[in-house]
């Protein structure tokens, strides 16, 4: 398995719209395994292919406290959503150390293909519902900071550029 590097906001590649996965083959299974390794190493609860600069509809999620229940969603589609909304504090591996509140559907049902290429449905609530919606936004080229005010987003952009510049100076 290999560790993949994660794009950081405001990298324009984060705004690429992903295309469907054509076939769940060896290349895709290898990508799934690499993304899981990358997500666990970064202590994230989810990772979208967009974040590792692969623009295909594929996400991995693990919201279990033991971090031993990997969920693979290939070509995910939301087939039902609650009218009830919920606000939760979100973070993103592409926007490190930034956390803010986002309102989303409280529950969603998603249909996707698993790592074995079989279709399945998942009814998600709580953190998993937040994560499914956050990851599917990435596949549409959308980062959670786009839900925040223009002023907050501008401050985040400046902070991220400064952080990246400082890190590059050290290496
Ligand atoms: O690790 C992550 N934590 C998180 C917390 C609250 C809401 C969403 C997330 S997803 C994030 C990993 C990530 O950036 N996935 O795209
Ligand atoms: Ni994210």
Strand residue percentage: 25-35%
Give the neighbour order of strands across the main sheet: 1-2-3-6-7
Q: What bound compounds does this protein have?
A: ligand GNR, nickel (II) ion
Number of strands: 7
Q: Gap between N and C termini, in Å? A: 25 Å
* Derived structural class: alpha+beta
> Helix count, per DSSP?
3
Poorly predicted runs are: none
What Rg, in angstroms, do the CA atoms define? 16 Å
H/E element order? HEEEEEEEHH
Q: Indicate the overall shape.
A: globular
Biggest sheet features: 5 strands, antiparallel
Q: How helical, in percent, are the residues?
A: 25-40%
Mean pLDDT across all amino acids: 97
Write the layout of secondary structure elements.
Layout: H1 26-41, E1 46-48, E2 58-61, E3 71-81, E4 85-90, E5 100-105, E6 107-113, E7 119-125, H2 126-139, H3 150-170
Antiparallel strand pairs: 1-2, 2-3, 3-6, 4-5, 6-7
Bound molecules: ligand GNR and nickel (II) ion (NI).
